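Why run this: before we spend reagent on co-expression, it is cheaper to look at a predicted model of the complex and decide which construct boundaries make sense. The entries below are exactly what would go into the expression plan.
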Amino acid sequence: MTTATARTGESGRTEDLEAQIYSSIRHAVLTQQLTSDTRLPELTLSKIYDVNRTVVRRALGRLASDHIVVLRRNQSAVIASPGPDETMQLFAARRHIEAEAMRQTAGNIDNKTREAIEKVVAEEHHAHAEGVHDDRIHLSLRFHERLADACPNRVLGQILQDLILRTSIAVALYKVPGMAACYRATDHRSIAEALFDGDGERAARAACEHLNYLEDRLNYATRIRRVDLATILTG
Amino acid sequence: MTTATARTGESGRTEDLEAQIYSSIRHAVLTQQLTSDTRLPELTLSKIYDVNRTVVRRALGRLASDHIVVLRRNQSAVIASPGPDETMQLFAARRHIEAEAMRQTAGNIDNKTREAIEKVVAEEHHAHAEGVHDDRIHLSLRFHERLADACPNRVLGQILQDLILRTSIAVALYKVPGMAACYRATDHRSIAEALFDGDGERAARAACEHLNYLEDRLNYATRIRRVDLATILTG
DNA sequence: TTCGAATTTATTGTTATCAATTTATATATT
DNA sequence: AATATATAAATTGATAACAATAAATTCGAA
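The model came back. Tokens follow.
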């Protein structure tokens, strides 16, 4: 009762709690609920999640290694804020690497992963039709992650996953808030079809065009409010 | 006097101590003194370096994020051991990315970085001539790191640096111990010259050939002894 | 008011102790 | 001798108290 670590009952392994902190912060960033330079004090988070500071620190460490937050010595973690220059470089790097991943993946997809990819595309389409934008954002992310998973070169696939997440964060920061666009219904489907057809070059072109479309829609002038952590993270 | 944290005098900020632990373990791995699966208990390291376990843990965390060691829950950190398959994928990914970095860097090198690169090449040549293999290994690593630094796309440059380190570790693990080869005097020089000439395509080709030469010289059968940490890390 | 210094508060860093888990060792059993 | 089991040692994980640093606030002077 006396400390933040006296669990109330529902609890779980600290491992899972750490993952939960990581996920909810990541989620909040991707859905534009947490924006650049928002501070994330350890004590605040440990109270919100009712865990020890140690757990919070590990979660923040993971978030930092994924470029979601930035850690500075003796200072609170803050949500990362990639500038316009870094964002352009992120997109350029991702185009180059995702295109190569498409070439290597085309024709190398087994039935199970093919079905998984088609399922994501369908769910994404559905979420868009229903106007559930938060879901659509995560499904869009998952689509690209699934493709990266299918890349036979696992090293390249992992690098690509990092870039997918980082560009998604940049998009969340710079697209005008709540904007339903940044989505063309046919983009993901045509990438997937080219892959299934075994046409790596066409898939690579489609992926690059898709990324160009996204990058064009960013507005680097968009700058933002400050918010209350608890209301966002516990929601 | 009673604890490992009562410094004996020379000491320094924990920040520097952490960096020192990181560097010496990294050094030992690159020079084949520490090999795959060697365990690195926190208490052992904290005694060797006369620091708190917390510092050791942070250092191990950095080593893990650089793929130099692997962390498993409730188990000691161990030196990473990329298998033949992962090593091949590392080389393939590095070839693709380093080639692109060469294309982007060619013709974009200012005088100061050019001089720095030429200096490394000269030092490397000297170290090879004198037979100081440990120095040569680090200078070879630094040569590629300098090129990666010069890449105008910093995101791509950072990804490349990660791959350079990981491939170097794989080389350390799989080249026959003490082998003086894995070095062709002209390789680095011809890459540098192509870059200075502004011929990105030639630089990319030279880099790929260089990597192919290295990869061809690996022996995946090489497997190794167990050793005493203190004698290696304090030396 | 506005700027700057001093003070207080908030926050992270460090360290020690105890608990939980894994690894190593010894013992018994077939 | 080989294998399984129990025991002990080594090792990491969790927690709490304290120290050091940064951020926010107050208060005074221009």
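Residues 41-44, 53, 57, 73-76 of chain B lie near DNA strand D (CB under 10 Å from a C1'). Chain B has two domains: 3-81+222-234, 84-215. Bring this page to Monday's planning discussion.
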